[in-house]
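Final report, Chapter 2: Outcomes

The project's central promise was a pipeline that accepts a single protein chain and returns its three-dimensional structure in a standardized token representation, suitable for archiving and comparison. That pipeline is now operational. To close this chapter, we reproduce one record exactly as it appears in the project archive, with the input sequence first and the structure output second.
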Amino acid sequence: MEITVREVMQMEPLQGARVVAGETKLNNIVRGITIIERPDIVEWLEGGEILLTSLYNIHNEVSYQEYIKKMVQKGVSALIIKTGRVVQEIPQEIIQAGNEIGLPIIELGEKVKYIDIMYPVMAKLFNDQVIKLQYYKQVQDRLTGLVIAGEGLDGIVRVLEELLKNPVVIYDKKFQALAATDLKIVRFAEVQDSSEREILNNKFYYYRQKVLLPELNNQKATQIVIPIQQLHQISAYLVVIEINRKMRDLEFIILENASTVVSLELVKRFAIGEVERKFKYDLLDTLVTGDFHLETVLERASLMGWDLRGAFCVVMMEFDNINEYLQDRDNRNTFLTEIGNTVANVINEYTYHFMRIKSDSLFVLWPVGSKSQANVTGDINKAVQKITVILKKKYKNMRLFTGVGGIVPQIHEIAKSFTEAKNAIHYGKTTNESLVNFADLGVMRLLCKFGENNDLREYIPHFINKLQIYDQENNTNLLHTLEVFLGTNSNAAQTAKELFVHYKTVLYRLDKIKEITGIDLNNNKDRLEAELGIKILNLLRKSH
């Protein structure tokens, strides 16, 4: 819809005008027209103007060569000079400069009034602006209607393809496709450096770049890329692939409209996602407390399409040293969401699940389904190993601790599995074990529960402490002998083998232990106390 110098020349007031220089530039776009009778007015031009002058106050004051050069630098489209009053003919220096530098120089007869030229040109420009505004409104109404109607990004790209006659893709900030009219053009390979891109608009910063399309036998194509910004950060990209035809100037109005509508849709998506996330997190928090009415929870779950029937276990993950990776990040939640997405993508390879992300941890409700406990445990172990490898590559100093709670048959017992998973992590951190399954802890499960809010040293029997002190003062290892003896089910001969000592040496040590501690190793109560005491000591040693 833009007009050129050539089209202006065809208007009635300019029928007698003559192009004397710069004829190759008659396709310059015209965006305005003004009178210039002072040299310094050039400094105030915005570009795209046709200048009208009689060279009054100019012809004796400036170098025409420099004057024409400055006009071209400012983006002037053409210079119309009226002859007969100030100058009888256009100076040869101007004609030469117009040809050399590339500016149309047009000679106008003395009898033609400036106003007779300016009115029709301004009317044409004004009419074009009205047409653009009408077109802008039509496109805006149509695209906004899609969002209101809930058509989403799929509806937006469909309408854009219809309007632009080219396929369209919307990517997220990592260039993962959110919506596309043709899946074959989603993947692409850039074939030029970012510095070689053709910048099409400095205000909206959209650009044209050359690419190859792998799904179409590496066909060459150009993309129009429009970054979508929210809160001064790029959140998505709207991309038109010029595979059928090159975009026309007027069609860029569509893209400016579309970028606004896409941004609106993304905000809408985010708002809905936040509500859904809060609703989901509230339900998961309720489940792990164990304080709820079953019917209410099942009703809330059904609203989200969740099936909470059957057995579950809780898998909890804690991330040590996470703050090291948050120092240069503006948004902690975004970082945690990225980690959560990594975890979710791996677990999805094994089962559907329900996840809750917290400040430096997350937990997962892992459905058991028809699988055996061994198969479920195997899947969890493999998933955790994969997750650990992925996170280690991205965040070398981050340490992942995972605790697995026991399998519970009904949702009102999920709180029990949650507590077990938490205790398993507590044990894992104490013993420096990355993955701990609560079911594998044996009697240590009892110690985990006692040790969560209490000092385990309080539960070490006094006779074990006496034996430990004796060993330290006399450089003996009676406590270790007792541990091995209890571990061999009170078999002195087997104890001697494991300690690489004589059988009578073991008997001597056992008598010495009885003398120091006063316990009876044939008494079940004394034996149990001794075993627990030694386990607590070992647990405390591992934690330091």
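Archive annotation: The chain has four domains: 3-123, 150-270, 290-451, 456-542.
This record, like all others produced under the grant, will remain available to the consortium after the project formally closes.
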